[in-house]
Amino acid sequence: MDANAPLEIERKFLIRYPEEAVLDRVPGVRRAKIEQIYLTAQGGETRRIRRWEEDGSVRYVRTVKRGLTAMTRIEIEDDISPETYEELKEEADPRTRPIVKTRLVVPDGDLHFEADLYPFWTRMAVLEEELPSEETPVNVPELFDVIREVTEDPRYTNAALSRMADGELREMEEAELRAAEPAE
C-alpha cells in the first residue's frame, strides 16, 4: 500500500444507547443503514465491502485498511457496482459474519460524529469521530453518554465484532455496563 494513501484518523467511544428520536431532531443529522462484509486479507490489511443505504439511494464501497497506530490507518476506498459487491461476497472471510448497523451522522462544526447502533446491543453503541490529526481535541456532545474511550481497544473494531458470536457480544455489553456502574 502507498504510504501517501489517504489516512483515516479517528477516536472511538463506547456510549450508552442514545435516544434516536432526540438525535433525529439534531439539525443536519443523517441516518444510514449499513451492511459490511469482511473479506479475506493478507499481511496486516483489512478488506471489506459495504452497502450504504441513505435517503432512498444505495452506494456500494470496497475498502482496504492498514493500521499505523491505534488511531490512524491508511484507508483506500472506491465505489463499486452492485454486481461487483455480489461477486466480492464470495471472498468473505469465513471467520466473520456481516455487520449490520444503523449509523447516525451528527454534525460537529467542520467534522461529524458517527453513532453506530448494532442489533446485537440494546444498551450501548459505538461513537467515533474522524479527525484531521491525532492531536485534534474531541469534545463529545452531551447528547451522548460516554461509558469510556475505546480507541485503543481492538475488540471494538467492526472487524473484531464481526468475529464474535451473539453470546460473546451480549456478555461484552453486560461487562461494560457493570464496570460503568458507580461504586456503592
How many domains? The number is 1
Major β-sheet profile: 8 strands, antiparallel, barrel
What is the CATH class designation? Mainly Beta
Choose one word for the global shape: globular
Mean pLDDT: 94
Portion in beta strands? 35-45%
Number of H- or I-type helical stretches: 4
CATH homology group: Hypothetical Protein Pfu-838710-001
Instruction: Report helical residue fraction.
Output: 10-25%
Briefly note the structural class of the backbone: alpha+beta
Number of strands: 9
End-to-end Cα distance, whole Å, is 51 Å
Q: Please provide the ordered H/E string of secondary-structure elements.
A: EHEEEEHEEEEHH
Instruction: Predict the CATH topology.
Output: Hypothetical Protein Pfu-838710-001
Rg from Cα: 17 Å
CATH architecture: Beta Barrel
Q: Would you give an account of this structure?
A:
By secondary structure, the chain is α+β, with helices and mostly antiparallel strands. It has one domain (7-180): Hypothetical Protein Pfu-838710-001. Helices cover 17% and strands 42% of the residues. The protein contains four helices and nine strands. The protein has helices at 20-24, 82-88, 158-161, 166-180; strands spanning 7-16, 30-39, 45-54, 57-67, 72-79, 99-108, 111-117, 124-130, 146-149. Strands 1-5-4-3-2-6-7-8 form an eight-stranded antiparallel β-barrel. The longest helix is centred in the last third of the chain and has 15 residues, at 166-180. It is globular and about 50 Å long. The termini are far apart.
